[in-house]
Every structure is written in structure tokens, then in C-alpha cells.
Amino acid sequence: MANKLKLGIPKGSLQDATLALFERAGWRIFANGRSYFPTIDDVEIECMLVRAQEMARYVEHGALDAGLTGNDWVLENQSDVERITSLTYSKQSRQTVKWVLAVPEDSPYYKPEDLAGKIIATELVEFSKRYFASKNIPVTVEFSWGATEVKPPTLADAIVEVTETGSSLKANRLRIIEVLMESETQLIANKTAYADAWKREKINNISLMLNAAIAAQGRVGLLLNVATGLLDAVTAELPALSSPTVSQLSNGEGFALSTILDERVVREVIPKLKAAGATGIVEYPLSKVVL
Amino acid sequence: MANKLKLGIPKGSLQDATLALFERAGWRIFANGRSYFPTIDDVEIECMLVRAQEMARYVEHGALDAGLTGNDWVLENQSDVERITSLTYSKQSRQTVKWVLAVPEDSPYYKPEDLAGKIIATELVEFSKRYFASKNIPVTVEFSWGATEVKPPTLADAIVEVTETGSSLKANRLRIIEVLMESETQLIANKTAYADAWKREKINNISLMLNAAIAAQGRVGLLLNVATGLLDAVTAELPALSSPTVSQLSNGEGFALSTILDERVVREVIPKLKAAGATGIVEYPLSKVVL
Amino acid sequence: MANKLKLGIPKGSLQDATLALFERAGWRIFANGRSYFPTIDDVEIECMLVRAQEMARYVEHGALDAGLTGNDWVLENQSDVERITSLTYSKQSRQTVKWVLAVPEDSPYYKPEDLAGKIIATELVEFSKRYFASKNIPVTVEFSWGATEVKPPTLADAIVEVTETGSSLKANRLRIIEVLMESETQLIANKTAYADAWKREKINNISLMLNAAIAAQGRVGLLLNVATGLLDAVTAELPALSSPTVSQLSNGEGFALSTILDERVVREVIPKLKAAGATGIVEYPLSKVVL
Amino acid sequence: MANKLKLGIPKGSLQDATLALFERAGWRIFANGRSYFPTIDDVEIECMLVRAQEMARYVEHGALDAGLTGNDWVLENQSDVERITSLTYSKQSRQTVKWVLAVPEDSPYYKPEDLAGKIIATELVEFSKRYFASKNIPVTVEFSWGATEVKPPTLADAIVEVTETGSSLKANRLRIIEVLMESETQLIANKTAYADAWKREKINNISLMLNAAIAAQGRVGLLLNVATGLLDAVTAELPALSSPTVSQLSNGEGFALSTILDERVVREVIPKLKAAGATGIVEYPLSKVVL
Amino acid sequence: MANKLKLGIPKGSLQDATLALFERAGWRIFANGRSYFPTIDDVEIECMLVRAQEMARYVEHGALDAGLTGNDWVLENQSDVERITSLTYSKQSRQTVKWVLAVPEDSPYYKPEDLAGKIIATELVEFSKRYFASKNIPVTVEFSWGATEVKPPTLADAIVEVTETGSSLKANRLRIIEVLMESETQLIANKTAYADAWKREKINNISLMLNAAIAAQGRVGLLLNVATGLLDAVTAELPALSSPTVSQLSNGEGFALSTILDERVVREVIPKLKAAGATGIVEYPLSKVVL
Amino acid sequence: MANKLKLGIPKGSLQDATLALFERAGWRIFANGRSYFPTIDDVEIECMLVRAQEMARYVEHGALDAGLTGNDWVLENQSDVERITSLTYSKQSRQTVKWVLAVPEDSPYYKPEDLAGKIIATELVEFSKRYFASKNIPVTVEFSWGATEVKPPTLADAIVEVTETGSSLKANRLRIIEVLMESETQLIANKTAYADAWKREKINNISLMLNAAIAAQGRVGLLLNVATGLLDAVTAELPALSSPTVSQLSNGEGFALSTILDERVVREVIPKLKAAGATGIVEYPLSKVVL
Asked: Is the pLDDT of residue A14 over 80?
């Protein structure tokens, strides 16, 4: 029988971003309406949509060989899995998320110890219990089915909640008193599967290509011409690590430079390159980068 | 300070149907975008959107005086609350839901006992544990974050899942082997709140009006004229319990009948009334019925 | 085996209006996504969605016992079916449609005979051929797969096309030179099925209820009070055929009138009734009317 | 030539509510996509969509015989028109709107006089200028093309802005320091047109029917039966002005009552009626009411 | 007068994909709402939207000089046209479609001959008749107005239907017993028009550019650097036909390679290139390719 | 305190196109729902959404340092601002707009002078008044709140209206009798701000990058190989100003050319390049171009 890698794709808020990432990395995954078994254009992979919260559990048990999920849920489930690579591709921000302990703005709680004897609502029950236990603070941790940030003060005294920008907490007039954990998406693998040579190479290739797609997202290609005498002045304006490919023009009157730039610095670099005498400056989009 | 009733409205799949029911019953509730505190046109009520799964917990603790939730979640939480009335107004079907134990169609499991030693995935963890414990069947019950019906056989051996028509189970090739519970929406109240005279009357009035709106939904008003000699023949075609209001016409040539009919029988009753000699048959819609 | 009536529902532009009509008449039909076999809340009926163009063919052959389709397609297919009742419930206008012979505004064609030797594009090929043959006008009739009204003069010389208001013809700068047929929706039945007593009664009841729902759509109920001396003046303002139900008020000071009015005259009648002394004028909506 | 009434319908935020009101009143107006000349099912009326801000200007000049617009814009334009009736049918709230003078929450302005020498942004330029002139407060009034409430303090010192609930002002952290005007929608007529007998009657009939539709919107019909001895107790629970129609039942055992109630009191009245012994209580919807 | 090419664009399911293809090829075509005459940014071309089923007929007659349609409809109409090029750009799959003879899964028909005397429903009436005639199998071929695949067994015994993936046939429980034809989109031309030198060149240029855009769609550009000694090892990992452009770096320490790759092999090639020592691997998107 | 540039973004029809332009130029601006203060990923810039009509007024007064608006509104307000650069990036057409004087098709007005004594409706009141005053034509210019083109002849005699393609004027049967002004979007700056060195450089860099993004939009990158002997023939087919970068291939058998082409000529150039012997022709997209 042919080799197959059972791969878990996170269902829900990360799903579309994950499918888009795989497409940029070279795999088209088709989510067929309500089916939980999307098709993929690679006969060596079998996909399944699984909630991020449950992914680590199923990877650990071997129902899946590998999967993408947040580090937070690996910790919540205390799953014994292989961590292959971190991947930050969240659609909106590319930031990591934080799980924080938050209380009403006008409450008298300013540090975790102030919550002794209180009710904490959270989706991350086990992790939160271990956190408070490690500090010897007696609290009641209740599972929250959602909308956790509207619960204080009516339905809970404090919450342990995930936040990216803090805007939802602010909108609900909550104050952060402690950051419990930072988390980002990871590609994880079952330990037995990762010991198998074929699966190990397949997983590593997927990791390489996902990272190549992520690396391309924030970068652009830059081409420019420079007269012979200006080469040093122009290259001095490029970021230190960019090491351009320099080719001599066939007419002998200068050089063509080709380099890769971080997208965020382009708006500052191009005006300087032009001032230094570069001509024919052209930026083009990239789809994969392996430096 | 004025009296206020703290009322929990179920957030999620039942929310729109619930707001529509309250509107038909005489209260307009405005869900303001993402706020969890909808406004209501009754200064004596304060609303909060709460997940059905958590409603009974908060009514029991007194954070809410009353709320609507399924009987299933009252049982899951084993909450000590006052049950005021059952309300069946689910948008699609008006049926009750069932929680069933289901296994893959082609699995070798045919009764609960066959699942000894197996993994059961469900959202109703505590109820399921008590069910299997009461039968002395040792199983592992795992909390499912959703999409429970796609888990067998890969991620679980069996599930305890809610179903209304069974079509989702069938689509996932699952077979029901036991019905664990039937459940319907209920208006529940905090016991202390219900002991307060003002709150008790307010809750009872809400119960009366919600039931009046539900009763109207499946019924219609019927008016018809009948000549003096045909009165008995025509009334004989009306359902036994309909007891029409009969008024004599001022010209003395017959009677005007006014009655309420179950909407489902109208398509059979009207042809018979016409055959029996009724004239001027008119059906009109109702918005509340208190028989 | 239980009796079953096989009923064809027209798929396409009339589908939603037809399902709405059946709902008002007392039958709920659920079109399940892409299925062509909608469910209906009547165990004695089996529905199938069929294109209006093909309905008469399948009713004639007996694959369906009854169905709704336009008279135009009965004629196009020259189907030998029982015509039960005409039903005008088209969502926008309640008008009948016309099939017309149309030519470009600035063409030299003014009567059918002018088109001898020309190309006619139409969806109604057989009917059009018979029409021109009956007049001994030699033309080429070509089947048009749609967008017939944009074909002249580039792709055809004239068209036979359906129109309700003529606005699409006008927008395409076409001129009507002859009305070939007026058509409206009909309930038709297979002749053998209609000879069966059970099916005949079932079809007749459906016909009665559909007509009751259509009759209600353009009518409203009117209640009003009138003092004893003004009864004649007030009733004189009611349309001739409305024959109100008159009940004496228990206080002996006048009468309560109840009647049914055509919705289109209400805006003229109410001001006159008020001027004649009627009080407490109330209009309420109707859902079925069998006069 | 036939008589025609040229009627202006307010384009924009009130348009859908106005078309719905006319439909309930008995006239169907069809807005044909982007056309400004909607069709109406009354050959005696010709409609035109006109911005509320310009309506009074065109009614005054006679380009329109009548139209619906806010009183605010009549005053802004100081138009000399006939005011026929006020109409409060705004879809959301049925309230009137207010034009207020508002300043940033944390500004040092607390009364109009504090704004001497400042910049006021508003859509209601002329009215605002007259207001400040009448108080001898020198200010600069600038026309605002929209989003007026975000201008202070960056782009203006204060604003004159319309508000219904005040929520938009609050969201922009503005404080109301004066209410300049309350305004509601009015049916206005050109004075010459209103002097013409035919047009006057037509306008008055439209006014009567629009009011009949508005009156029905907040009311419902109520039917109930009451045993002979309980008639007084039951009627005592009805609002003072409801004066029910009482008919004796033909079996002599009681009365049938029919009345109209304000929708807002139904939820309080029905429980009391039931407690007083009423049976067969039925509420039905109304579409027009002329008391 | 200037030269003009009359070009038919297929209306319907292929329309959006065709407009997108032309845009990638260098022509912007604007479909103006409901107009059948889209504008194009090339004064030498005049476009018309025509149903694929009718395209070949109008190209043959000369109403159009060229057009895009499926080979199936050229065969159905037996049109005498010039076939310029095949184009496979269907949005979903890039596959060709098949017209198949299909019967109910559980029917007793297993080869075309089994259908003697039966009813065949299809949109491709003439082609199907010729097919069965060529095999001397007597059948009745009926024109189907759509939804052909739901007709067996109720409304037809078998169908001739188009399919891309077979999923719709499977969903309707049909079994394929014969593939009658494979078909793909073609650019076709009127024979007289194609004999004209100007039109011939214009059509050929369109053909070249459409193919250039299609060729680019499944390919990407790849840049990479390689140290002098590793050139052979790295190029050995490139697909045989890719023939990279190799330029010496100006610092003399290696080479820059530029090549075009089939998008489907990138995910396998990049890991191998990296393993072979390539650095600075960059993939960028292409919009046209003429090899 | 850090330097900040206050930048106005035009709200309304140009908003999305402007945000897209800034994104292509290197700045991400996030419009947060209804907020008028979008965030931008550059700590040196503070954005505000302002109507194009008011932009010049606020830039002139210094509430904003710079902003984008049409030249028409700079002229209407006669604002004294620095004009930095013209930017034509309108989503649909890249054309400039025109303000025209238009009258009903069948009116007797053929030149501005014919409108003496008439009513002109327009959004551009001050500019129009100055235009007619400069020609000594006495007219009444009325402010139009929108839908200006439907006003003649009922509500105005002529209009001064903006048009891009003239299609809306044609649809309303209006005839242009004079073009009053051509206008395009401009980046404008407050004169005091532009005198500040830091703000001047920041504004100039924004101008450079916006122009780089606009320049890229209508251009593409082209790569091709050419054998040694064909270099002249191939380069002869390139547009005069394209000056390709020519690199010798490492195998000595020819050259690799890289150039930038205007997107509109590609469909003509590629067929000629191929005919001249170019191979491996590849077009790729660009995101910025500074020539």
C-alpha cells in the first residue's frame, strides 16, 4: 500500500488562512462544503479538519500523523508530541497571541493573589488550574463556552482569555493583570510517525515549503540598474543582510542588481536608492523564499 | 429602586427564534450588534445573552432570575432551578430534540454494553458519564468541541449527540443504538427569585404570553356564514373541540360563525364546510391565543 | 399501499411563487437545496420539481398525476391533459403573459406576411411553426437557447417571445407586430389519474385551496360600526357584491358590519364610509377566502 | 386630460419605510432600479423620488403638488407650503428626531453663548445661522458634507446635528448643550394645488389612508368571550377608551367582545382579562384603523 | 472603414472564466450588466455574448468572425468552421468534459444496445441520434431543458449528459455505460473570415496570447544562486526540459540561475535544490509564457 | 515629541481605491468599521477620513498637513494649498473626470449664453457661479443634494455635473454643451507644513512611492532569450524607450533580455518578438516602478 500522511488542518478561525498558506506553499486543499475530509492534490496526504483545541490530543494518540495547532492547546492538553516548526501566518496581524488574566477595570484586583476564593471563567481550564495551583492561590476555574470577556463582573470575577491586540478586552472594560502565556501556531507530529523515515521526510518537506511561503509573504523582489561608479553608493543603501546578485550589463556600462527586501523597509529604501543614483528600480512580488 | 427581572436569552442557534417569539408575545428585544446586553422595551426587565449550555448554572446561582434553555443542559449541570413551562418554538420543526448514542453504521456495536472500554465523544460529558455509570459500563467520555458526528470511527468509537431529524447522523453514516434523553426548551427560574411575589407574577405573565404566542402560531381564525337550516350540518364538520362563537345575522336569515382552527386541518375542513353549505368562508391569521 | 398523488411543481422562475402559494393554501413544501424531490407535509402527495416546459409532457405520459405549468407549454407540446383550473399568482404582476411576434423597431416588417423567407428565433418552436404554417407563410424557425430578444437583427430577423409588460422588448428596441397567444398558469392533470375517484377528489381539493389562497391575496376584511339611522347610507358606499354580515350591538345603539373587500378599492371606499358616518373602521388581513 | 397629482417621495434613508407605508395604506409604488420616477398603481398619481432636503423647495415652486419631508427641511428652506399632516413612521423607533447643538465632552462650552467666535459644522446651515443670529452670538457656520459628528474638535468647535437616540453623539464623545428643534415627517402641499378641489380631495384621502395605516401599526384586534355574569369585571380590565363591540352569543350564555388595543398594553391586559374570567382570548393583526 | 473582428464570447457558466482569460491575455472586456454587447479595450474587436450552444451556428453563418465554444456544440450543430486552437482554462479543473451515456445504478442496462426501445433524455439531441443510428439501436431521444441527471428512472430510461468529475452523476445514483465524446473549449473561426489576411493575423495573435496566458497559469519563475562547484549537482535536480538561463555573478563566485517550472513540481524540486546546495531560492509568479 | 504627518484620505467613492493604492505603495491603512480615524502601519503618519469636497478646506486651515482630493474641489473652495503631484488611479478607468454643462437633449439650449435667466443645479455651486459671472450670463445656481442628472427639465433647466464616460448623462437624455473643467486627484499639502523640512521629505517620499505604485500598475516585466545573431532584430521590436537590460548567457550562445513594457502594448509586442526569433518569453507582474 502507498504511503499516506494523515494531516490535521485546524477548523474554524484559522481554517481559511491555513488553506491559503498551503496553497501558497504548493498544495491545493479543497474544503467541500460541510465535509470534514477536504481533498488535497497530493496522493501522499490525507487531510482532516479538526478543531485546534483537539488537534494535539489526536496527534498524540496517532489518529493523525501531523497537524497544525496553537502551542496553547498543546500545553492545555499536556500532549506528548514532536514540535516541528513555529508558523506565524495569522491573517490579520502575524503576531502571536497571549493568554492573559483580566479583571474589570474598576475592580480591586491587581495581582493574581487578589483573586483567592474567586471564580475564574476560561476556555483553558487545565492550564489555568495548574497556573493558580503553582502559585498556591485557591480559585474556582469554570469552563466558559464562549463570550468569556463579557462575563465579569456578573458571571465571573476574572477571566483567562486569549487576546491579540487587546481591543476586545478594552471594549469590555477589562484590565490585564498578568500574561500567562504567549502562543503561536505550530506544526506538530506524532512521535512514532516522526520516527518513520518516509513520514519524517514528508513532514520536513511540508515544513520547508510552509516556511518558504511565509518567508515570501513579507518580502519583495527588487531589480535596479546602477552605473559603474555608483555601485558602492547604491549598495550602501541596501539593508546589511540583503547581499544582492550583481550582474554586469553586456554593454559594459554598469550593473544589474537583484535582491530580496523586507516589504516593510521598501518605502524607506527606494527613495534612498534613487537619491544614490539607481535607475530602473522595479519591485516584483514573490511567492516563495528559501534563503 | 424599581423592580427588575434579570432574564437570560439563549445565545446562538436559538437566539433569533427566541427574539421572534418574544416579539410575538409582546416584547421587543434589540440585539445591538456584538453586545451581550440587548435592550428590551420593558423597564421591568434586564436581558442578557447567555449560552444555553451555561444558562442553568447562572440561574441557579442567582446571577439571573430566569432564563430559557434546554432541559438537556439543566440536567447536564444538575442545576437546582424552578421549571416554569416548556416551550416548543424551534424555528424549523417545533419538535423536541433527542440526545442519542450513535455508532458507525458498519460497526459491531448494537447496545450500550458493547461499548465497554471504548471512547465516547460528546458535548454532554457529565450526563453521559452518569448514564454509563448507572449501567456499570466502563467507558472513556471525552469532551468534543464540535463536529462530534464526524469523529467515529477515526477519533472516537461512539458519540452522544443531539439530533432533531436524524439527517446529520445519516449523512455521516452513523446508527442510533439508544435514545438517552428527549429535551425541549424550558423557561426556568431561580428558586429565591420565584419566591418573591413581584418576580413570580412577572415570570408567570411572561410564561402566559409566550404560550399565547406559541398557541397562535399553529392556529388560524375562521369566519363563515350558514343558513338557518344548515347550522347542524356545518358545525358537524368542525373539529370536536372548536366550539364556535355563533351570532345571529340581523336579517334573521342565518348565522355567522367564528372559530379557531388548528392550521394543519384547515386544508381538509374547508372543502367539507363548503360541501355542507357554508358560504363566505374566510380564514385570517392570529397573533395570540389563550383558550 | 396508501394512495399517493404525484404532483409536479414548476422549477425556475415560478418556483418560489408556487411554493409560497402552496404554503398559503395549507401545504408546506421544503425544497432541500439541490434536490428535485422536495418534501411536503402531506403523506398523500409526492412532489417533483420539473421545468414548466416539460411538465405537460410528463403529466400526459402519467409520470406525474398533476402539475402546474403555463398554458403556452401545454400548447407547444400539444399535450392531451385535463385542465383543472387557471391560477394567476405570478409574483410581480398577477397578469397573464403574452407570446408576441416582434421585430426591430426600424425594420421594414409590419405584419407576419412580411417575414416570408426570414429567420425566426424562439423557444416555442413547434407552436410558432404551426402558426406560420396555418397562414401559409414560409419561414425558418430556429430554437433559441435564451436571450432571444437581443438576437434581431444580427442573429435573427424576428422573434416569438414571451412578455409580461413589454419592457424588455422596448429596452432591446423591438416592435410587436402580432400577439400569438395569451397564457396563464394552469393546474393540469393526467386523464387516467383524474378518472380515479380518490385522485380526482384530492386534485379538486388542492384546486379549491389554491384558489382560496389566491382569492384572499387581493382582498381584506373590514369591520365597522354604524349608528342605527346611518345603516343605509353606509352600506350604500360598499361595493355592490360585498353583502356584509350585519350584527346588532348588544347595547341596541347600532350595528357591527363585517365584510370582505377587494384590496384595490379600499383606498377609495374607506374615505366614503367615514364620510357617511361609519366609526371604528378596521381593516385586517385574510389568508383564505371561499365566497 | 385626466387629473394627476405630482407626489414627491423622499429618497434615501426614509425611502423604504415610505414605500412600505404607502403599501400598507393601499398604494403600491415600484422603485425601478435606478430610476427616479417610480411607478404607482394609481393612474391619478405621478411619483418622483426627491431628496428630503430639497422636497419643500420643489413643492413650494409647484414642480410637485405634494410630498413627504421632515419639518426640519421645511424650516431650513423657509418654504411657504401647506402642512397637511404629521406622520411618524420611522422604521426603527417611531420617535421624532431632534437637531441639537453638541460639543466635545471635555470642551469648556456649556451654553450657546460660549461658542462666540467659533466654527459650527452642520448640514442645516441657514436654520443654524438664524438661530445664532437671533441670539446675537457671532459664529462661523460651515456646511458639512457628512460625518458631522466626527469633526469636533479637529475640524470644528461644535456641530448642529440630527439625532434620534443620541447614541451616535455618545459614541463620538459629544455633549448636547441645546436642543434647537424637534422635527417629524410631514405631508406638505403646494398652496395653489391645495386650492384646487380635485387635488385637495386627493391629498386629503392620501392623508386619511396614511394615518389609517400608521394607526394600525401599533394596534391589534382582540376577540374574547365572557359569561353573562362576568361582563362588567372583564370590561373593567380593558383600557378606558377601548369601547368594545359586544354581541350576544346565540346560545344566550354570554357575550362575544371585539375591541382594538394598543399593542404595548396587550402584555399587561391579557393576563388581567384571563384572571377576570375571559375565555377564548384571541389577538389578530390589523392593517388599517380609522377610529 | 477600419477593420473589425466580430468575436463571440460564451455566455453562462464559462463567461467569467473567459473574461478572466482574456484579461490575463491582455484584453479587458467589460460586461455591462445585462447588455449582450460587452465593450473591449481594442478598437479592432467587437464582442458579443452568445450561448455556447449557438456559437458554432453563428460563426458558420458569418454573423461572427470567430468565437469560443466547446467542441461538443460544434459537433452537435455539425458546423463547418475553422478550428484554430484548443483552450483548457475551465476555472475549477482545467480538465476536458465528457458526454456520457448513463443509466440508474440499479437498472438492467449495461451497454448501449440494452437501451433499444427506450427513452433517452439529453441536451445534445442531434449528436445522440446520430450515435444511436450509427449503431442501429432504435431509441427515442427527447430534448431535456435541464436537470437531466434527475430524470432517470421516472422521466427517462437513460441520459446523455456532460460531466467533468462524475460527482453529479454519482449523487444522482447513475452509472456510466459509455463515453460518447470528450470535449474541450476551442477558438473557432468562420472560414471566409479566416481567409482574409488581416482577420487571419488578428485571430492568430489572439490565439497566441490566450495560449501564453494559459501556459503561465500552471507555471512559476524560479531564481537561485549556486556556487561554482555545485552547478552540475543543482541543475541535475531541475526537470529535464527546464533549461535554465545561467548568468555568472560579477564577483566570480558562482552563478545565478533563472528558470520556469511547472507549479505542480515545485514542492518536490525546491527541497532537492536546497539539499544540493542552492541558495537564495526565490519563486515568483508569471502572467504569460511563450516557450 | 515624535514628528507626525496628519494625512487626509478621501472618504466615499475613492476610499477603497485610495487604500489599495497606499497598500501597493507600502503603507497598510486599516479602516476600522465606522471610525473616521483609520490606523496606519507607520508611526510617523496619522490618518483621517475626510470627504473629498472638504479636504482642501481642512488642508488649507492646517487641520491636516496633506491630503488627497480632486482638483475640482480645490478650485471650488479656492483653497490656497501646495499641489504636490497628480495621481490618476481611479479604479475603473484611470481617466480624469470632467465637469460639464448639460441640458435636456430636446431643449433649445446650445451654448451657455442660451441659459440666461435659467436655473442651474449643481454640487459645484461657487465654481459654477464664477464661471457664469465671468461670461456675464445671469443665472440662478442652486445647490443639488444629489441625483443632479435627473433634475432637468422638471426641477432645473440645466446642470453642471461631473462625468467620466458620459453614460449617466446619456441614460438621462442630457446633452453636453460645454466642458467647464477637467479634474484629477492630487496630493496637496498645507503651505506651512510643506515648509517644514521633515514634513516636506515625508510628503515627497509618499509622493514618490504612490507614483511608483501607479507606474507599476500599467506595466509588466518581460524576460526573453535571444540567440547572438538575432539580438538586433529582436530589440528592434521593442518599444523605443524600453532600453532592456542585456546579460550574456554563461554558455556564450546568446543573451538574456529583461525589460519593462506598457501593459497595453504587450499583446502586440509578444507576437512580433516571437516572429523575430525570441524564445523563452516570460511576462511577470510588477508592484513598483521608478524609472
From this structure: yes
Query: Looking at the domain assignment, is residue D290 inside a domain?
Result: no
Q: Is the pLDDT of residue C101 over 80?
A: yes
Partners of residue C145 in chain E, C-beta under 8 Å: 51, 53-54
A155·B50 Cβ contact <8 A: yes
pTM of this structure: 0.82
| E179 shares its domain with E191 | no
Q: Does C160 score more than 70 pLDDT? A: yes
Mean pLDDT of C112-136: 96
- Residues A6-25: what's their mean pLDDT? 92
Residue at a domain's end among A132, A158, A183:
A183
- Interface contact flag, B279 C291, Cβ < 8 Å: yes
Boundary residue ending a domain (C174, C197, C216)? C216
Q: Which of E21, E200, E245, E249 to mutate to test the interface with F (most CBs of F within 10 A)?
A: E245
Residues D106 and D172 in one domain: yes
Looking up residue E60, the CATH number of its domain turns out to be 3.40.190.10
Q: Which are the contacts of F85, defined by CB distance < 8 A and separation ≥ 6?
A: F186, F187, F207, F210, F211
**Domain shared by F163 and F280, yes or no:** no
**Nearest chain A CA: its distance from E69 CA (Å):** 28
Residue ranges of alpha helices (H) inside chain C are 15-25, 52-61, 71-77, 125-134, 167-171, 191-195, 197-217, 231-235, 263-275
pLDDT digits (tens, 9 = 90+) for F139-152: 999 999 988 999 99
Mean pLDDT of F167-187: 93
C283 touches chain D (CB under 8 A): yes
Mean pLDDT (chain C, rounded): 91
Do D177 and D196 fall into the same domain? no
Question: Is the pLDDT confidence value at A4 over 80?
Answer: yes
Q: Report the half-sphere exposure of E149 (CA within 13 A, side-chain side).
A: 19
Q: B282 and C286 in contact by Cβ < 8 A?
A: yes
**Distance in angstroms (rounded) separating the CA atoms of residues D106 and D122:** 20
Which residues, including other chains, have CB under 8 Å from residue D120's CB and lie 6 or more apart? Answer: D101, D128, D132, D139, D140, D141, D142, D156, D157, D158, D159, D160
Task: List, in sequence order, every residue forming a beta bridge with F160; answer none if it has no partner.
Answer: F101, F122
Q: Does B43 touch chain D (CB under 8 A)?
A: no
CATH number (domain holding residue B248):
3.30.70.120
Q: Are residues B82 and B206 in the same domain?
A: yes
By CA distance, what is D249's nearest residue in C?
C250
Cross-chain residue pair A54–B150, CB shorter than 8 Å = no
Interface check B7 vs A, CB under 8 A? no
pLDDT digits (tens, 9 = 90+) for B166-184: 888 998 999 999 999 999 9
Task: Report the distance separating Cα A121 and Cα D77, nearest Å.
Answer: 58
F67 and F13 within one domain? yes
Rounded distance between C-alpha atoms, residue D165 and residue B39, angstroms: 13
pLDDT digits (tens, 9 = 90+) for B118-138: 999 999 999 999 999 999 999
Question: E51 vs C145: CB contact, 8 Å cut-off?
Answer: yes
Task: Report the domain count for chain F.
Answer: 3
- Here the cell at position C222 is 373590514
F17 part of contact set with chain E, CB < 8 Å:
no
Whether D72 maps to a domain, the answer reads: yes
Residue E112's domain spans which residues?
A: 97-183
Residues A201 and A244 grouped into a single domain = no
Lowest mean pLDDT among A259-263, D207-211, F135-139: A259-263
Residues E236 and E226 in one domain: yes
- Domain membership of residue D291 (yes or no) is no
Q: Give the pLDDT score at B153.
A: 92
* DSSP 3-state percent helix, strand, coil across chain E (nearest 5): 35, 35, 30
Give ipTM to 2 decimals: 0.86
Tell me the mean pLDDT in the region C44-68.
95
Looking at chain D from residue 112 to 171, which residues have their Cβ under 8 Å from any Cβ of chain C?
none
Residue B23 belongs to a domain:
yes
Q: Does C41 touch chain B (CB under 8 A)?
A: yes
**pLDDT tens for each residue of A44-87:** 999 999 999 999 999 999 999 999 999 999 999 999 999 999 99
Length of chain C: 291
